[in-house]
Amino acid sequence: SGRLYVANYGAGTVTEYAAGASGNATPVAPISGLLGPSAVAIDPHGNLWVAVYGNALDEFVPGSSGPASPIATVSGPDTGLNGPSALTIDAAGNVLVANTYGESLTEYPTTANGDTSPLRTISGSSTGLDFPDGIDVDAAGNIYVANEFAGLEEFSPTANGSAVPTESISGSATGLSAPGQLAVAPPLSVATTHLPTATAGAR
Question: Is the pLDDT of residue 193 over 50?
């Protein structure tokens, strides 16, 4: 639909804007009453996933607005959620989460609800994860992570446990400074007339 969804941590809302919105635009369907929303992602079914304060993920159907009730909430000690601050949808269509305080990446099916154990957890000394607060995947399923204190890392699509990154970007020449959210550009094609760009920004 081309609509834009924004997590507003301080206001406790997720605001949605129509395609082409500009200037002092009024949100189409703001969701309110959320506790510290920090990240959003749209799954293959069109549902909206929101990471909220208190180590939880809320799922909303398209068109939700106001103090809407989520159709599912992933929360509890078995989930492994610990400071979820970034979300993306991986190559399998599952929800992939960067847990800043847990220094881990956790993956859940879109059918998850309640105290659901993750399908996999990337965590441990070999991963090099250090306050991860940005995450994205490329078309091949490779996972890219921004670490607030350790630069950028790439993991294979099947990475699990204390996986070793396949690539990392760090050092004084990189210009990285507490990197936060990131995005992976799609591959170029012969029909491309404008170069796509990857973006990254601090929290």
Answer: no
* Beta-strand runs (E) in the chain: 4-8, 13-17, 39-42, 48-52, 56-60, 72-75, 84-89, 95-99, 104-108, 120-123, 132-137, 143-147, 151-155, 167-169, 181-182, 200-201
Query: What pLDDT score does 108 carry?
Result: 98
How far from 144 is each of 47, 141, 192, CA to CA, in Å? Answer: 23, 9, 24
Helices then strands, counting H and E runs in the chain, come out as 0, 16
Which residue's entry shows tokens 């200037």? 23
Q: Which of 64, 154, 143 is nearest to 96 (CA)?
A: 143
**Confidence band, pLDDT 50/70/90 cuts, at residue 179:** confident
Tell me the three state secondary structure of residue 78: helix
What's the Cα-to-Cα distance from 57 to each of 60, 82, 112, rounded to whole Å?
A: 10, 11, 10
In the prediction, which pLDDT does 167 show?
Answer: 96
Q: What is the pLDDT of residues 42-54, one digit of tens each?
A: 999 999 999 998 8
- Pairing verdict, β 84-89 and 72-75: unpaired
- For residue 136, give both structure tokens: 């994205």
Q: Are 55 and 84 in contact (CB under 8 A)?
A: yes
The answer to whether 48 touches 64, Cβ cutoff 8 Å, is yes
Choose among 105, 20, 27, 29: nearest CA to 62. Answer: 29
Among 130, 129, 121, 110, smallest CA distance to 41 is for 110
